[in-house]
Design a protein that fits this description.
The protein is α+β, with helices and mostly antiparallel strands and 227 residues long. Helices cover 41% and strands 23% of the residues. The strands form four sheets. It has a three-stranded antiparallel β-sheet with strand order 2-1-5, with helices on one face. The two termini are 43 Å apart. It holds the Pfam family SBDS_N.
Length: 227
């Protein structure tokens, strides 16, 4: 069984739990210092700063550690630090109300910045002021773990329907050719991620003309690779 190494945490601050589900009925947990998960994910703190104790648990609240066999079966190794890094990167972190508030404010700011850089006023062609975008965001529900690009697109579409924003996308146009048999699947994927300006079947190929924003290109390529 992996050895437990206890560390100090800030006085008066309750330890937090990060949970990683490997299947419907099996999950693993680590205990971390408050407020450190976000900084770790932003490469601003080390693993040693984050972990309260170098142990992977089946149930952290009851202090039930996972066995070496259980760790190997789930992660392919028994190195607690490597496993903890994976849990920190992919797991669900328990957060305080103040942390959730800060995270939501940061998410809204990032979405507002994205809209400001990638959309323009439909009438003047000028950037939309950040304070105006943030005012629109305050009226809509935003989830902390949402896809930034998709959420920005949803918010803009909703604001346009309600007459809160009149905008146009500042797009770059490209063409992408795929086997014609993927026409339907590709159309659905691309329409979620960018603007499908045209689609033309040319023999065994379908050629898409796509309009995309700066932050959408990676997701377009990833969508095409899934076909």
């Amino acid at each position: 069984m992996p050895k437990q190494q206890k560390k100090k945490h800030s006085a008066g601050a309750s330890p937090k739990i990060v949970r990683f589900k490997v299947s419907k009925n099996k999950s693993f947990e680590i205990m971390v210092n408050p407020g450190t998960v976000a900084t770790f994910r932003q490469d601003r703190s080390s693993l040693s700063d984050v972990l309260l104790v170098e142990t992977v648990f089946k149930n952290a609240r009851k202090a039930v550690p996972a066995t070496s066999d259980e760790l190997f079966e789930a992660f392919g190794c028994t190195d607690v630090r490597k496993i903890a890094e994976r849990i920190l990167s992919k797991g669900d972190a328990q957060t305080s109300s103040s942390e959730r508030k800060k995270g939501m404010e940061a998410k809204k700011r990032n979405i507002a910045d994205f809209i400001n850089k990638n959309y323009a006023d439909a009438r003047t062609g000028l950037p939309i002021p950040l304070n105006r975008i943030l005012s629109v965001l305050e009226k809509q529900r935003v989830t902390a773990d949402c896809d930034l690009v998709l959420e920005a697109r949803r918010i803009v579409d909703e604001a346009k329907k309600k007459g809160e924003l009149s905008v146009k996308r500042k797009e770059t146009v490209m063409t992408l050719s795929l086997p014609a048999k993927f026409k339907r699947e590709a159309s659905v994927l691309f329409e979620r991620r960018c603007s499908v300006l045209s689609r033309t079947v040319n023999g065994s190929q379908v050629v898409f003309e796509l309009g995309y924003l700066a932050g959408e290109l990676d997701s377009i390529i990833a969508s095409a690779e899934k076909l």
